[in-house]
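In full, the data.
>
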Amino acid sequence: MIILAIETSCDETAVAVTRNGREVLSSEVFSQADMHALYGGVVPEIASRNHVAKIGKLTELAVKNANIAKSEIDAIAVTYAPGLIGALLVGVNFAKALAMALNIPLIPVHHIRGHIAANYIAFSELEPPFLCMVASGGTSLIADVRDYTDINIVGKSRDDAAGECFDKAARVLGLGYPGGPILDKLSQGGNENLYAFPRPRIDGSPYDMSFSGLKTAVVNLVHNSEQKGESIDMPSLAASFSLAISDILVPRVMSAAKEFSRSKIAIAGGVAANSRIRADFLKAAEDGGYELYIPPLNLCGDNAAMIGCQGYYEYLSGNTAGMDLNAYATMDIGLR
């Protein structure tokens, strides 16, 4: 089954062509990061306008590079939640028009389900059940993937997402946007024990997380140093900060895997590209005897290939939509 997939939940316009949920025939991504870097973060109106400007040509390019005719496309998959509502609406309306024009099914895909599915592309042998940590600019959660479309959230952030925390820390340090890759590169060679940052816990919810206090700790450290005229060891701050986030994520995932008797653990989302977090998961999985799946860097960020992959399994489960499909800024991963 050939699916053309569309992803416009934030500031990447992405179109891909996939086959049978595992094979990527083409994957095109237009990143707006340089545009939004001028403002220190994503500007929703700019994101939406650029999606409108790029989505048509990107779709033509994806079809061309897949070496197929439009008549060979069996269905259209599209991210419809969660994300920036204006950005999502561009993709949803374009997908509806394309599905109507080609007279083929329309498949709604939850963005976070798509991130989990990125692992199916990278690892053809991976099948549910498994535990998955999804950490990105807008989401941090631990999911028990019982089946391809049966996913239960066992823990999530109560406030900021891990990726958002990276971005805001980089901004207060004057390092630019997006903050994750910048801090990761800067942290190499730094002393990860030089600065003490909090690792919050939530009473009664062992797998839930909180990152707002960590973000505030960085802001306070920077402001206090400025007031006292003290210099900051930037590589060590970046290393200490990355270690703190890893210490919040990794132990919770490993504990959840033990409780839910999952022998396989997968990682997904943009934060999965962080070298410290990847290394800590690799060590924890090896020490605990778990199979670990971490997708390559090009599948960690937002892309449409993952939406096409998950779209295949949504279609098999009977999840299709009509022309009344809407976009939603927030939605639980278990809802359709």
Notes: DSSP finds eleven helices and ten strands in the chain. The two ends are 22 Å apart (CA to CA). Residues 128-294 form a domain with the Nucleotidyltransferase; domain 5 fold (CATH 3.30.420.40). The chain has two domains: 2-116+301-316, 128-294.
